[in-house]
Fold:
Amino acid sequence: MNVKSRVVVAAIAALAAFGTIAEAQARGPHGGPWEMMDGGPGGRCGGERAKPLTETQVKDIVEGMIAWRGDEATVGDVKTEGGKISAQVVDKDGKVLRTIAFDAKTGRPERPQRPAKPPVE
Structure:
């Protein structure tokens, strides 16, 4: 291997090492920006919030979700029922597209329930 090849290999190795270090520093000590929400190290592990979510906060969260997706939808009714806060996402004609529910104590969105599959005969 000549000198030029060694320099190229060393440069590639240095760039790879730099990229790995930069990625680790960007993630931080907990591994990523969403890990705390998922109950990872330093996360709340499904624990309760210091203050429960309010209907206004849920409306703001859902408006942000709509803006992130770029949909032409808006937030409809926001209701509190039994420790859950649900917000309707409606289209410009007023048709309900979906309802998103949050647990007020933990702040986590409820997972949508999939319909049961019929038994295979």
Observations:
- The radius of gyration is 23 Å.
- Residues 32-44 have pLDDT under 50 and may be disordered.
- The chain has two domains: 1-45, 48-112.
- Residues 1-45 form one domain.
